[in-house]
Amino acid sequence: DGGITQSPKYLFRKEGQNVTLSCEQNLNHDAMYWYRQDPGQGLRLIYYSQIVNDFQKGDIAEGYSVSREKKESFPLTVTSAQKNPTAFYLCASTKGWGHGYTFGSGTRLTVV
Amino acid sequence: SQQGEEDPQALSIQEGENATMNCSYKTSINNLQWYRQNSGRGLVHLILIRSNEREKHSGRLRVTLDTSKKSSSLLITASRAADTASYFCATAPGAHSGGGADGLTFGKGTHLIIQP
Q1: A44 contacts in B (CB within 8 Å)?
Q2: By three-state DSSP, how is residue A63 classified?
Q3: Residues B87, B91, B97: CA angle, nearest 5 degrees
Q4: pLDDT digits (tens, 9 = 90+) for B28-45
Q5: Any chain A CB within 8 A of the CB of B30?
Q6: Buried b (16+ CB within 10 A) or exposed e, A18-52
Q7: Which residue in A10, A31, A85, B23 has its CB near the most CB atoms, within 10 A?
């Protein structure tokens, strides 16, 4: 079955470390997205990519970086510049304009 | 900035009753979507309604859209315990702004609890 796989499910980061969250999809979708969700809050857009080798900043891109070298993969790196990284991170993809999003099951990142 | 805002923030009803959630937004949209999120999980797409549509049905779900009032409602009929979840509305901006490929904008959600 097609879908989006996020890994790991839980991730712990020490102060000053960079960590990378994985997002892989086998839906043949061009557009992929990273969202951040804080407790009791909605989702905020970090980065998105509409096509391979191209990506755009979302509303809260500071302290994050991404790459899109393959259609199937859109990894997110949380850098040490992100001062408050503890959150639930969700990856999504869509067939395109006018279609719903398919979400992964999320990665919960905690700073220790 | 958050485009959609759901109302109420939380809703508790008895199993079998109908649940209604509302969403208001600020700018023009191409479409509006509703998602469900179970605790600690990813979001699941429920239904999409386009700006030129007024009502849409999917099983026990009924969505309405009033673009003049910039509002939408989600009705879940004959609720079940399994409907307990958070429900989010998300808006895709108008065509001149990318139409949604630039990313949906989500509200903070309505937490629905179905009492057995």
Answers
A1: 106
A2: coil
A3: 165
A4: 999 999 999 999 899 999
A5: yes
A6: ebebebbbebebebbbbbbbeeeebbbbbbbbbee
A7: B23
